[in-house]
């Protein structure tokens, strides 16, 4: 879609002004139904460039710092926060001529996987407003799925790009950890956080990350990726590539509660595997220790909560954010934090604090970090034999908004494997179950993004959901 | 046998974080912490982790180098830094008296 828009701009069939105006109008008109935006920018900044992104509108997840533009992280603790600098990814986008038309809502500060926990209210799924979008990049996924913008920037700490992509029927790509600088991204769990993109095609995902990747002196975990050109690597040649799937996740007999939607999602997944084989890709089944699979969610919860508790201790309302009431600094900070955080965030912080207590570290935090190590070792070993892991992005289409239990918002979180090892991981739409989109996910070894995207590119052509936009129901 | 979490305990933990929680929120936290504690029982049965070090970053391939001494950036502009604070006095952030 981006290449096509670029060509039309070059040939003067359309103007950038018209594209931007249309995107802003669509965003405004969609707000009542989808509530995807925290801020819509009516007079966006424009820089000329010869890049493919020049003159094309984009939406940005509201946990990325945008100079002079409200950046709330969808939290009341930052409801008036206006950064005085751009995140590195934003700086690069602007230099590429990309035009930021809005900031999208997220599950508060990137935590949560439903799209229901933003300070501005729930984000609705463009395919069916009674369904969740998934999160935390909920507004970015909805904005792309609704055709408001051709692409939107997101972030992914556990599966926050890849699940909303699946639930909204779009492409969601989390690059290798450190490929895109995290400078200016509101830190949630620094050892897992990754900046990525939501698009309607693999090609567009490659184009965008090519523009925003690169080593950054402000992020010591970023690395030099000059030798990687994702767009040029897309040739669709995948004969003799090798993928594996995890038996325990993809075998319906392994599930006690076999809902119709689960059965159909697993069936569809096996149909997708056949299509991989038709492309000449070898697909193997690999068995994982069930205990290890069951450990992914609690391990993720423990590590992410501990890192979040530490990272977000700066949210005090003293040096930024609304000042709390009280006679002492402690009272002011407590008032600010008590009123500003949602219940989910408070829960995460208390869990994080508990596992960080000296007497609990061994049993909780270190045990989880060892499980992380074991999973990464196993994956790295498998990646010596295989190009990637293929899985259903989610074992069901987007659930109903009122079907979400308040406590364990998501327990099925095996895509966090991608964050444990910093692996490149991409979700692409693969079909429909109960009239809602579903997706498949491919995860590969670190810095092998070009290979993973190329496999997804070939499969996307075979599946036929490229450039898909939601046909919504109210 | 697992430690049994109580509302009082998690309320105290939240208080240390300068976060106030309701009875309902305390109940939810007890429930989730109990889930985490139960999960750690399962994890402790995974023998292969015994000889592994905790992994705190995805991979260790960082390329860092020391900068030259004269290669530095100007600091941040103080007005920029203060622009998001609610209570300032001149070039300082105003807070209640904390000492003496």
Secondary structure: elements and pairs:
The complex is a heterodimer of chains A (474) and B (100).
Chain A: H1 2-10, H2 16-34, E1 37-40, E2 57-61, H3 88-95, E3 99-104, H4 138-145, E4 152-156, H5 162-168, E5 171-174, E6 194-199, H6 202-212, H7 230-233, E7 242-246, H8 247-250, H9 260-278, E8 282-286, H10 290-311, H11 329-340, H12 343-356, H13 358-385, E9 388-392, H14 417-420, E10 425-433, E11 436-444, H15 449-463
Parallel strand pairs in A: 2-3, 2-4, 7-8, 7-9
Antiparallel strand pairs in A: 1-3, 4-6, 5-6, 5-10, 9-11, 10-11
Helix pairs in contact in A: 10-12, 10-13
Chain B: H1 7-16, H2 23-44, H3 78-82, E1 88-89, E2 92-93
Antiparallel strand pairs in B: 1-2
Helix pairs in contact in B: 1-2
Task: Give me a quick take on this structure.
The complex is a heterodimer of chains A (474) and B (100). Chain A has 474 residues and is an alpha/beta fold.
Mean pLDDT of chain A: 95
The fourth-level CATH homologous superfamily of one domain in chain A is: Amidase signature (AS) domain
In DSSP terms, counting alpha (H) and pi (I) runs of 4 or more, how many helices of chain A? 15
**Major β-sheet annotation of chain A:** 11 strands, mixed
Q: What is the H/E order of chain B?
A: HHHEE
By helix and strand content of chain A, what is the structural category?
A: alpha/beta
CATH topology of one domain in chain A: Amidase signature (AS) enzymes
């Amino acid at each position: 879609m981006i290449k096509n828009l670029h060509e039309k701009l070059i040939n003067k069939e359309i103007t950038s002004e018209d594209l931007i105006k249309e995107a802003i109008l669509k965003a405004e008109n969609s707000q009542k139904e989808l509530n995807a935006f925290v801020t819509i920018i009516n007079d966006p900044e424009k820089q000329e460039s010869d890049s493919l992104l020049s003159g094309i509108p984009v939406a940005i997840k509201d946990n990325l710092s945008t100079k002079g533009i409200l950046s709330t992280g969808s939290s009341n603790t930052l409801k008036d926060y206006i950064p005085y600098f751009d995140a590195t990814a934003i700086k690069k986008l602007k230099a590429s001529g990309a035009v930021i038309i809005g900031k999208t809502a997220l599950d508060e500060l990137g935590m949560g996987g439903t799209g229901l926990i933003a300070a501005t209210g729930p984000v609705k799924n463009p395919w069916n407003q009674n369904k969740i979008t998934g999160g935390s990049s909920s507004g970015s996924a909805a904005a792309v799925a609704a055709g408001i913008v051709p692409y939107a920037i997101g972030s992914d700490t556990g599966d926050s790009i890849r699940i909303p992509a699946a639930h909204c029927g779009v492409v969601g790509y989390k690059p290798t950890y450190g490929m895109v600088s995290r400078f200016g991204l509101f830190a949630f769990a620094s050892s897992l956080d990754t900046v990525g993109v939501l698009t309607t095609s693999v090609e567009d995902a490659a184009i965008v990350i090519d523009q925003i990747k690169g080593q950054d002196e402000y992020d010591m975990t970023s690395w030099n990726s000059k030798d990687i050109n994702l767009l040029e690597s897309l040739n669709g040649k995948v004969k003799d590539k090798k993928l594996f799937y995890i038996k325990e996740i993809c075998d319906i007999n392994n599930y006690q509660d076999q809902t119709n939607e689960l059965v159909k999602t697993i069936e569809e997944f096996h149909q997708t595997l056949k299509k991989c084989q038709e492309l000449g890709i070898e697909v193997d089944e690999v068995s994982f220790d069930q205990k290890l699979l069951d450990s992914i969610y609690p391990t993720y919860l423990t590590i992410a909560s501990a890192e979040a508790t530490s990272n977000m201790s700066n949210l005090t309302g003293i040096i930024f954010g609304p000042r709390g009431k009280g006679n002492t600094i402690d009272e002011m900070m407590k008032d600010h934090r008590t009123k500003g955080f949602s219940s989910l965030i408070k829960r995460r912080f208390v869990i994080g604090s508990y596992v960080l207590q000296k007497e609990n570290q061994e049993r909780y935090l270190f045990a989880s970090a060892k499980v992380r190590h074991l999973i990464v070792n196993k994956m790295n070993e498998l990646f010596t034999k295989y190009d990637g892991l293929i899985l259903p992005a989610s074992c069901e289409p987007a659930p109903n908004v009122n079907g979400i239990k308040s406590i364990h918002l998501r327990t099925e979180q095996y895509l966090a494997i991608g964050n444990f090892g910093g692996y490149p991981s991409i979700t692409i739409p693969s079909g429909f179950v109960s009239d809602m989109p579903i997706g498949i996910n491919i995860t590969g070894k670190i810095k092998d993004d070009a290979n993973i995207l190329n496999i997804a590119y070939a499969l996307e052509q075979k599946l036929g959901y490229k450039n898909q936009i939601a046909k919504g129901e109210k | 046998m697992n430690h049994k979490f109580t509302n009082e305990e998690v309320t105290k933990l939240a208080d240390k974080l300068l976060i106030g929680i309701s009875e309902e929120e305390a109940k939810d936290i007890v429930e989730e912490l109990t889930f985490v504690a139960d999960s750690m029982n399962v994890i402790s049965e995974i023998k292969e982790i015994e000889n592994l070090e905790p992994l705190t970053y995805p991979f260790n391939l960082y390329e860092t180098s020391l900068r030259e001494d004269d290669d530095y950036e100007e600091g941040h502009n103080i007005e920029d830094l203060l622009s998001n604070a609610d209570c300032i006095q001149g070039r300082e952030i105003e807070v209640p008296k904390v000492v003496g």
